[in-house]
Structures
1.
Amino acid sequence: MNYPEKARRVIQLEIDELQRLHARIDDRFAQAIDLLLACVRSRGKLIVCGVGKSGSIGRKLAATLNTPVPRPCCWMSATRCMATLA
């Protein structure tokens, strides 16, 4: 197996995806940041939800947000949220 070539392919895939992400950033991104900041400034709590892979990403995001943000942030399974609302 040609490991250097495989590494180059993987890196190129990452570059391609980052370029797609770069192109998709628009005013909705700024709106999302403004909403998060408003929540933090009003001493609100951030709740991140997800199931499966998005749940794993949400858990990591909540942990990351707990570090720089002086407000509580937690992760909750979306299925648990639905059960709570029922």
2.
Amino acid sequence: MRLSNRLSAAGIVHLVARINPHRRQGTAQCIECSYCACMPAITVRNVSQVTRDELAARAAFRGQSLQEYLSAALESMAAKPDLDQLLQAVRSRKAATGTSISAQAILDNRDADRR
């Protein structure tokens, strides 16, 4: 079975999740088809050659393959909240506490540590 999901208005990113029907519980690799751990795959289309070459150079500098480098970058991105989530959490906390600090008070406290 193959599931697809197009992201972005331009449809530039195309996610493909491959579900392996041969997967066996508790195995790291499918015995019948040798598909490693039946992990989903991500395909990114319409990446410029310049961008691809820059990412490959960064990966090589770190002694990684392009796949390893991009996988680590995606894991890092997914581990952090995105900006909208972070701002919503701050707004919720501020609304719950009802406190407010002026910009001048923040700057005064910052500058007091520098004197």
3.
Amino acid sequence: MTGVQTCALPISGKPVIGLGRGGLLETVIDGETGVLFPEPTVASLIEGVSRFAPGDFDAAKLSRHAASFSKERFRREIADFVAARLDEAAAGPGGRSEKKA
């Protein structure tokens, strides 16, 4: 399963069961948006699946959490970050504008 898929499932109100490593640690909240198991072993997977109860997950909450990883949010935050850095650069050292009057 890819990182995109782990965001797409919650948008549709479906929780995720996955290995608690890598990108899943950033996109899945154990017990809230899915179930994470700690080791890449059969025993760990069985433990994770045994903790999974579909009725424990709120589809609306899953969708809201997944929306926080949207392209629109990413674009907005990158644009805001770049604009802030450009403003800082234009202000120059000490916060004064480097533009000549």
4.
Amino acid sequence: LFVCGNGGMIALCGATSGYIASIDLRYLWMYQKRIQGSHGGSADDFRNYLEIKKQAGIKDVVSKVYPWDKLPLAHQELSKGAVLGKAVVRIVPEDYIKENIFL
């Protein structure tokens, strides 16, 4: 909520860490922010998408992965158009990901 600009929107897709949240509504009200749920389809839809993408030879382009402490730099580079493809901000340390088999 805090990284979203005034008048901006946060899209939620999934609730794997839980579905109950506590937020300070003043930040939505005072800064006219929105929270929007987003659903992309079923698990079968996603598997079909991945198969079609694989057959077509489509590969995702990840331009750069930023650690959380470089979030301001990520925003600067995105606003300057210095990123081709996707920019990823890692919200957990890389060693945690490797230890917990997220990679």
